[in-house]
């Protein structure tokens, strides 16, 4: 049985979000630990993101496409251009306020027939943040379905304590670990998304995804936004993917804005704004 997400909203970037709309979204998020926004970004940006994933794979052929993570971001104007998109920031602002920084971002691109699963986990178990005030936007680049390994969440599990993680060497997976508690998979919901849709989730929610054994790629971009009052507690400062995006810069040290260099960087339509 496929259990699809009931808490979804149409995104309208051409008008401000009303206070009543924000309150309704926050209420659903506080209850369930996730919400879905439809049609957040347009087909042109999704097309450029597809090209960007292919470009990254050519540049890093030794890296599995599920592992195109934040360490590659700091010198990538297009990537920073995407996470700075005002439509995405407008969504993030609903949950964490106006003063926003990027903590991390990661393409998880599951190739056809061989895409690895993401075992059940809570993001907060991994992240060096204090306090754990952060929100994840999962932006669909491809159609994301149960057949190709869409994200699955356990509604309400964001109210659980953060559990320990345990190594799992029996299954080749994106994280190599899984949550050290039993998960009732019959309670999980499938985040069925179209390109440009965004699923938003709490750092404590239990979530994961199955392997992609279908003939269709499943690619999404995770974007981890923090309010600028949240401190990134990491030995490397500035953190590779720490960028100030909006409002007061707050408590962190940030990477400088990358400058577009033809021939070195991915070519995109707004590149002249990053020179």
Automatic annotation (TrEMBL):
Polar residues: bias regions: 1-11
Pfam families: PhyH
Top-level division of the source organism's lineage: Bacteria
Alphabetized UniProt keyword annotations: Dioxygenase, Oxidoreductase
Keyword flag Oxidoreductase: yes
Chain intervals for the UniProt region annotation (Disordered): 1-21
Gene3D superfamilies linked to this entry: q2cbj1_9rhob like domain
A Gene Ontology molecular function term of the record: 2-oxoglutarate-dependent dioxygenase activity
Designated name of the protein: Phytanoyl-CoA dioxygenase family protein
Lineage: Bacteria, Bacillati, Actinomycetota, Actinomycetes, Jiangellales
């Amino acid at each position: 049985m496929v259990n699809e997400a009931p808490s979804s909203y149409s995104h309208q970037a051409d008008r401000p979000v009303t206070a009543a709309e924000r309150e309704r979204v926050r209420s659903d998020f506080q209850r369930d630990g996730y919400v879905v926004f439809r049609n957040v970004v347009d087909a042109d940006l999704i097309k450029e993101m597809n090209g960007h994933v292919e470009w990254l794979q050519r540049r890093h052929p030794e890296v599995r496409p599920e592992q195109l993570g934040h360490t590659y971001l700091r010198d990538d104007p297009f990537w920073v251009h995407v996470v700075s998109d005002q439509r995405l920031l407008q969504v993030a602002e609903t949950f964490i306020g106006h003063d926003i920084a990027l903590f991390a971002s990661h393409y998880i691109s599951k190739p056809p027939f061989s895409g690895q699963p993401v075992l059940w986990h809570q993001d907060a178990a991994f992240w060096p943040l204090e306090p754990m005030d952060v929100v994840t936007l999962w932006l669909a680049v491809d159609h994301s379905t149960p057949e190709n390994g869409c994200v699955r969440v356990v509604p309400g599990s964001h109210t659980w304590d953060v559990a320990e993680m345990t190594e799992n060497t029996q299954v080749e997976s994106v994280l190599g670990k899984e949550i050290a508690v039993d998960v009732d998979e019959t309670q999980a919901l499938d985040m069925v998304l179209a390109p440009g849709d965004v699923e938003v989730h709490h750092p404590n929610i239990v979530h994961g995804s199955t392997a992609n054994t279908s003939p269709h790629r499943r690619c999404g971009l995770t974007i981890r936004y923090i309010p600028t009052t949240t401190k990134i507690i990491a030995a490397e400062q500035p953190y590779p993917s720490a960028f100030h995006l909006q409002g007061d810069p707050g408590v962190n040290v940030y990477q400088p804005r990358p400058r577009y260099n033809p021939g070195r960087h991915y070519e995109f339509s707004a590149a002249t704004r990053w020179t």
